[in-house]
From TrEMBL:
It comes from Klebsormidium nitens. It holds the Pfam family RmlD_sub_bind. InterPro entries: NAD(P)-bd_dom_sf, RmlD-like-bd. Residues 1-318 form the RmlD-like substrate binding domain. Signal peptide: none annotated. This is Rossmann-fold NAD(P)-binding domain-containing protein. It comes from the Eukaryota.
Amino acid sequence: MKVLVLGGTGYLGQFVVDHFLNAGDPVLFTHTKEVAPEITPNGAMCWGVLPAALRIDLTTEGGLGLLEERALQMGCGPDVVINCAAISQPRDCESDRDRAFAVNVPSRVTTWLTQRAAVDGRRPPLFIHLSTDQTYEGNKPFWHEDDPTNPVNTYGESKVAAERHLQESYPNHAILRSSIIYGPQPPLMPVGRTLPLAWMDGVLSSGQETSFFEDEFRNPVYVGDVVAAIAKLAESAEQDYPYPHRVFNLGGPERLSRVDMALAVARERGYSEQLVKPVPAASVSRGVVSPADISMNVERIQQELGISLTPFVTGVQKSF
């Protein structure tokens, strides 16, 4: 099974690339760095040709020709596409709305995939798209997939637009509305930003009291569970899609505040719980509206895909 990972050098993308390479699948992944990453995981050939990484600019279509060249070399396009590429920082999306939509709505890539599939004489490949819990408004707990989407910021709006694009223009898709993804350091290269647990560990290890929000709720999800869900969906890439639904909430099994998360890290790492200072989210100006409660009902993904979701305390233990 030929796998294309969009955003393969991001945090989640690296775990996805690593998983499929370890499974023996040929993998090609994209990035946006000025200089190509000097990594070819496990020395693997990707679609039979090196290098494994291609620079793709989703805002201008720059680099899509490289994907076409690789498809021509192999005689066909990918069997499955996993889209981890996004501008995922809400503040960045607010500061450049046009760029956020250009990157987060994958219309250029899906157009190429549709055209490539027509040339190959087969249906377009399964497109597994990472969306977000921020598609929900955030005014109640335990959002269900069938609840209306009503995002409160540009990031959420761009992700809703991406979902609608797939639903209207690219039928062979699956959408994962992910919560905060946490876990250990990525397997291939640094991502250039502080990860959630690493940040909490860093500030708590200083011994100084640190403020954490007590009134914003999410379902933080262990990165291994996200990869497991993607891998399960990918199993159906070369056959008819077997699941009743195409949109899945993907979060951990618990509704947690930042205070809850920080306390779990403090206990695991042996820091004083007194260092965790609960504060309301309104006490800090972040330059962007943030939903208060986007905890999700995650029964569908467990029942249909058979995914077992890792409790947060267990995930923290696995991460250090």
